[in-house]
Amino acid sequence: MSERHGKSWLLGVAMATLAAISLSGCGIGAARDPELQLEVEKLERQRAELQTELDQSQVEIKQLEEQIQALSGLPKDERDNPYPLKSIKITRYTNFYDKDEDGRKEKLVVYVEPIDAEGDTLKAAGTAHVQLWNLNKPTDQALLGQWEIQPSELRKLWAKTLVSTSYRLTFDVPDGAEILSEPLTVKVTFTDYLTGKTLRNQHVIEPGSQP
């Protein structure tokens, strides 16, 4: 039984019960029975609540029917996602920053642009996995740090400036990372929330480079 039919059935039961109580209350003295009166009032409230829920369900059904009709008019390959994600780009503003102005660059800020098929930036939902590497070190020492940002948090990090629109991801620089002496590589893996598609990009931060 669907939810809508279930509510209709309950509403019918409530109304039938009210009718039965009304008929039984026709006897002498029945109308003065306080317990019977309380039961009638309770059923009246339940009937009103069920009617409200049923009306709301009918409104929601109407809205869904309109959505289905609108979607049926779209080309088949555009119904799920009309703006498919094609690539990601780590912008040149990705670098190390001195956020507290103490003379030490303690923050890594990574700017990531999701790109659609037309080359435009879009706010795509997904998971971002970020890694910082020193590829000049031995393999077992090359990975300096890694972080993962889930969709619920990533959506809050969308930033618009005069020069770019992108996700702005900020991390603490790992202890011991020599950020000014050697080139360091930022790698980003982005998993699209809608399709599960995985996209990758990387960017090299040169010693002394300015964002």
Can you describe this structure in just a few lines?
The protein has 211 residues and is an alpha+beta fold. Helices cover 31% and strands 29% of the residues.
CATH topology of the largest domain: Immunoglobulin-like
Assembly classification: single chain
Sheet having the most strands: 5 strands, antiparallel
So what's the CATH class of the largest domain? Mainly Beta
Task: Provide a descriptive summary of the structure in words.
There is one protein chain. The strands form two sheets. Strands 1, 2, 3, 6 and 7 form a five-stranded antiparallel beta sheet that branches. The protein has 211 residues and is an alpha+beta fold. Helix content is 31%, strand content 29%.
Helices, strands, pairings?
Blueprint lengths: L2 H22 L9 H39 L12 E6 L4 E3 L9 E10 L9 E8 L9 E7 L1 H4 L3 E3 L4 E8 L11 E9 L5 E8 L6
Antiparallel strand pairs: 1-3, 2-3, 3-7, 4-5, 4-8, 6-7, 8-9
Helix pairs in contact: 1-2
Comma- or semicolon-separated keywords:
211 residues; alpha+beta; Immunoglobulin-like; 5-stranded antiparallel beta sheet; elongated
